[in-house]
Every structure is written in C-alpha cells, then in structure tokens.
Here is the input.
Amino acid sequence: MKNTLRLLAMIACLLGAGTVSARKPARVEFLNSGRVIPTTLPFSEAVRVGDVLYLSGQIGIAPGTMTLVPGGLAEQTRQTLANIRTTLVANGYTMGDVVKCTVMLSDMSRWAEFNEVYKTFFVGHYPARSAFGANGLALGAQVEIDCIAATGAAG
Here is the structure.
C-alpha cells in the first residue's frame, strides 16, 4: 500500500512538472510607435508582456517633438494624458485599460490643479495611483506620468 502511494505521488509530481515546463513564457515586445516620442530616444515608449502594457513616463510634449506645450501645469497634464492615450491606442489599448499610474509633480502643492485635469481622462473607474514630488523632471516638465494597462480592465 505504501509503495502504491509513493508511486502515485511520484507520478503526480512528474505530471505536474511536465505541465509547468510545457507552459510558454509570456512574449515580451519593445514598442515605439513614433506617434508621441521620437524613436531615437534610448528607451521604449512601451513594453508589452503578455496582455500587460507598461508605458514609459510621459511628459507634456507636443507629439513628435521634445518641446513642452505652453500654458503651465494644467496644459502639460492635459498633453501628458493625451500622449498616454495616443500610446495606448497605438498598441490596441484604451484609457479604460489603465490599471495603475505613477504621477510625479514638480510642485506637490498643485495636486488639486493636477487632479482637475486628470479625472477628465477616466470614465467609470480610476486606476490605482501613486504620486510624489520630484525635484527636476525631464525638459523642465511640471508633471510626468507612467502607466500600466491590461486588456480586459475596462470590462
């Protein structure tokens, strides 16, 4: 009886190990649409791992340039989120698929002003979010946001 149980346990282990090793690892894609940031920069606009899309930090640049839009924090926030939406759409995602955002502000005392613009880009739910003050963002930006999106998040 003990030998039969041992044999069954070994078979179960072997079958389980076979299932794990047969599973394919998620495909990783490094993506640069060229619709927001120049493709010559030394980072990917986004990286897809399986159904999850990781966006690099975006700032309020006019698409295809390295020039911040004029108008201060509100306009930079609006452009940053529009750039995020452009990157998402270029890769088959929507703002509704965003599950996490990290926000960096050059001046945390302007948090409420940032939020007034931010909340207009999401309908039905808000992603999980972290925020912190930063002493110096790329190109002198007042805001930078990076996001994670997952297909099926909106459903």
User: Anything to note?
Assistant: Strands lie at 28-31, 46-49, 52-55, 98-105, 128-133, 143-150.
